[in-house]
Amino acid sequence: MAQMCGSTAMKYYLPTNFIALGLGKEMSLLASGIESSLKVGCTVIEMMLIDRAGRKTTLVLGSTIMAVALLINGALPLAYPHNINHVSDYACVVFIFFFSFGYSIGFGPNSWVYGAEIFPTYVRAKGLCISASAGSIGSIIVAQFWPIAMQTIQSRTYFIFMATNIAAIVLILAFFPETKGKTLEELDDLFRKRPVKVDGIRPNTMTELRKTTQQSLVEEVVVQQNK
Fold this sequence. Notes:
Blueprint: H1 7-12, H2 14-20, H3 25-53, H4 55-79, H5 86-105, H6 107-118, H7 124-152, H8 157-175, H9 184-191, H10 206-226
Helix pairs in contact: 2-3, 3-4, 3-5, 4-5, 4-8, 5-6, 6-7
């Protein structure tokens, strides 16, 4: 979802998108540089928000902002085609920056944080490798799709990614548990479906496993002291 939300297309084709909205070549390059700097600043803001507001809240907020920005960028060029209304074009430029803000407080940093938390320890490395590879594949797909779609259906392309963000909001609210402030053991409890069998013991949760281990250590110490 982090790649299918439209961020890759915005990043790769941002100067072209600005030129299509009536900006000159130099101004479009300048605006692209400002947009990249904005992402860095917003990521710092997200670092301060993510452990206060939570993962789900920032993901939903970011997706909502991106969906609204994509709606504006898809609708205004249809209402005022061929750059006949400069106010409309400038509004689209502004909402591209809003899109970058939404991505930088949502999927941008959150996909890496949440991805590192949801995998159990014994598969975390493999899980992160698979998720990173999936992100790269998603970037390639979007990068190939965007210019063809813009040439064929023009600004309606934005509606496709708007729908992706709306779907992401529903999925996050329905299926993503909040991981803010939880320990690794508690995260294992959240995401583990099959309990682990250790020395013939099959606890329902990792918490029970930890308690069982601690109890065994205490009993062993008591036995040693009695000897």
